[in-house]
User: What shape does this take?
Amino acid sequence: MKLKKLCAFVLAGMMAVSLAACTDGNGPEPSKDAQSQTESSNAESGSQKTDAKGNKIGISMPTKSLERWNRDGSYLEKDFEKAGYNVALTYSDNKIDQQVKDIEGLIADKVDLLVVAAIDGESLAQVLSEAKNQNIPVIAYDRLIMNTDAISYYVSFDNYTVGKLQGEFVADKLGLANAGDKKFNVEFTGGDPADNNAKFFFNGAMDVIKPYIDKGTVVVPSGQTTFEQVGTAQWDTSKALSRFQNILGSYYSNGTRLDAAICSNDSTALGVTQAIQSDYAGNNEIIITGQDGDEANLANIIDGKQTMTVYKAVANEAVATLNLGEAILNGEKPDASLIEKSGWSFDCTYDTSSYNNGSAVIPSYLLVPVTVTKDNIQKELIDTGYYTMGSDGYPHPVQ
Assistant: This one.
C-alpha cells in the first residue's frame, strides 16, 4: 500500500448510527519519529508555525520512555502542522502530576483543542473540567479518560480486538480446538492497571482462552488468571521481567513445560522474553505475543524469540484525530459520516455504545489492528512504508 498525502476533508450529513465501516481513500505518508528531546517539566510548545486558521492544538503525551508514544507525538505534531495549525506538544515523563501541570499550561496558553493520551485515565477529571469551562474541546487519544464530561470524542484502536487477536493466535498455533486429551500450559502478562485499555486487551485474550481453561485443555500453573494478578505497572519491562522470573522459578523449575506467554504489549513481552531466556529450564519453542511493533520486538520476531505482535498503525490514528479535530473546530458535530467524507484508506468503525467513561458513553472512532509475524512483516510494515528493512536484516521505523 502506498500512502498518499492527506486530503482536506469535507464533513456533511447527520447520519447517526451506532457502527459504520470506513471506506477506501487516501491515507497518511509515513512521517519521521519524534526527535530526541528532554522530557517536559512544564508545558512546552512545539514548533510554532504561521497558521492561516488561527487555531492552536495542545497535545499531551504520556512519556517518551515507550517507543510508541514518540511515534504518536511525532505523527500528530506533523499532521496538524501540515494542515496549518500551531501545535504545542508535551510529554509528561509518566508522572501524573506533571501531566496535570502540562495540561494546565496548555489551557493557560489558550489552545483551541486538546488531544490527550492519559497516563492515568482516572486522574484528569479536575483539570479537564477547566478545559470545559474554557470551551476547549477534548479528544481522548488512544486511552479513554474516565469520569469526566469534558471529553468530546475518543480515537483509538479496537482494543478488545487487540487481545482477541492475541488469544486467537495462541489458540490456532497450539491447535486448542482439536487438542483432544492434550494439555497446554499458558501464562498471562497484562498491562498497566492505570491504563483503561489494558483491561480490554486482557479481556479480549482471556475470552478466547477461557473456554479452554474451563475445559482443562489450557492450564495456568501459576493460577494467575485475573487482570489484577497479571497487571504490569506502567507497562514496565523490568517489572514484567521480575514477575515472570518469579513465575518460572516457582512453577516451572521442575521441568514443567511452558507453551505460551500471552503478553499484552511489546514492552512487557520484552521482559517476559528476557526471563525465559535466562530462567526457563526447558528448550521448547514458546509462543510469545505482543503489541505495538517496537523495534526491539520486531528484531526478536525475526530471530524467533517472540512469535507475534499486534500492530496499530498510529500514523492512521493521527490522521483520524486530525480530521476529527478539524471538524470540531469547524463547528461540526462529527458522526459516522466523517469516515466516508474523509476518504481514509484504513479500516475503522464509529462506535456509540462500547466506551462508557463513567460520565457518558463517548462517541468513538476505532481503527482496526493487524497481526504481524515473521511471515508478513514485509507486507504489513515494510510495504506500507512505516518501516524499512535495514542492512542488518531488521525492520526500523521510517526516520
The chain has a mean pLDDT of 89. The two ends are 18 Å apart (CA to CA).
